[in-house]
Amino acid sequence: MNVGLTTAILPANEAAVADAARSLRDGGLVAFPTETVYGLGADAGNAAAIARLYEAKGRPAFNPLIAHVGGLAAAQRIAHFDAQAVLLAQAFWPGPLTLVLAKAPGCAVADLATAGLDTIAVRVPAHRIARAILRAFGGPVVAPSANLSGHVSPTTAAHVSSDLAGRIDLIIDGGAVEVGVESTIVGCFDAPTLLRPGGVPRAEIERVLGRTLLQPPDDADSDSGQPLAPGMLASHYAPRTKVRLNADRIEAGEALLAFGPHAISGVEAASIVMNLSARGDLNEAAANLFSYLRALDTKGVRAIAVMPVPHHGLGEAINDRLRRAAVGRE
Ligand code: TXA
Ligand code: MG
Fold first, then answer.
1. SS3 (DSSP) at 121
2. Residues 245, 177, 181, 179: is their CA dihedral positive or negative?
3. How far is CA 200 from CA 96, 97, 317, in A?
């Protein structure tokens, strides 16, 4: 059991990056900032470290991990890139896009990390500290979001610590992240498929590919019965408090998660109001989403009522996460 570890928290600087790389080499679990959310890193080639990682998160081992690398050349050592995948990598890396590709022959990532699939999820993060750690470590690092499985993803080091202190070795504190929702995941199959909306808007990917992204058939691959993005279970990203979507009025005792400049009916009855973006900016709303959900979840309110959020740009990812937060609680 990992519980009972002393978890060091270090401000992000050169010495901390060196400590992070050393810890990863020793099979340690290191949380670090990426531009999307904080990740919990382990050496992608070390099955024992990956087993500890699943245990620390309470994550089922059938849910595979994203391998993070420094660039396209490193990605091509672990995954097979067709022409479309190269196009996407060149357009969006480093950045908040994950590609699901066929594993390359001799791929050095442990089978445990890919849950026995013959595909692998790969991403080149843009965050300065994530990149420095990858460079110092010198190999692929698997990193799920650094939260307890099923909980809201962390956008600050304090979120990581509140979920995982005592269960992991090190947290590198690089301040609040920029994007705030996880990477967009595209399956580079014969027809490229949007497996998870995220930090790169669908429309930008479709513009680069010159075609529409398919939707996965209801979370399940019809041939194998394997979920296409196994982590995309309906209830995920979940606060403990009930979440009520598309609210057009407030019931007494509810918290309001607002969006945009307009007030809604009954707002004076709300026990607390947080606005994702008073000026109606979807990028700002994405950056605030998880920390506001976490904050409202500690207030002991009856429910969190959420105003409608438009669907374009990062709105698709925001609405996806809100829907999952509300499942079973509406
Ligand atoms: O922004 C992000 O992507 C963050 C940062 C830390 O990079 N990471 C992240 O990882 O969100 P995680 O583990 O929380 O979500 C990864 C998702 C899961 O839903 C998992 O099922 C899916 O990627 N996934 C991983 N490998 C896959 C594969 N071979 N095929 C389909 N889905 C895969
Ligand atoms: Mg996650």
1. strand
2. positive
3. 6, 6, 9
- Residue 307: how many CA atoms within 13 Å on its side-chain side? 23
Q: Is the pTM of this model over 0.90?
A: yes
Per-residue pLDDT reduced to its tens digit, 2-36? 568 999 999 999 999 999 999 999 999 999 999 99
Mutate to test the pocket of ligand 1, among 98, 107, 228 (most ligand atoms within 8 A of CB): 98
- Single-letter code of the amino acid located at 148: L
Spatial separation of the C-alpha atoms in residues 243 and 251, rounded to whole Å: 13
Does the CB atom of residue 216 touch ligand 1 within 6 A? no
The pLDDT, as a whole number, for residue 292 is: 97
CB atoms within 10 A of CB 80: 15
CA distance 20 to 41: 9
State whether the beta carbon of 151 lies less than 6 angstroms from ligand 1: no
Read off φ and ψ for residue 85, nearest 5 degrees: -65, -40
Nearest ligand (C-alpha, residue 65): 1
Is 231 a pocket residue for ligand 1 (Cβ < 6 Å)? yes
- Residue range 133-166, pLDDT digits in tens: 999 999 999 999 999 998 999 999 999 999 999 9
Q: Is 228 in the pocket of ligand 1 (CB under 6 A)?
A: yes
Distance, in Å, from the CA atom of 226 to the CA atom of 62, rounded to the nearest integer, reads 10
Q: CA-CA distance, 121 to 196, in Å (whole number)? A: 12
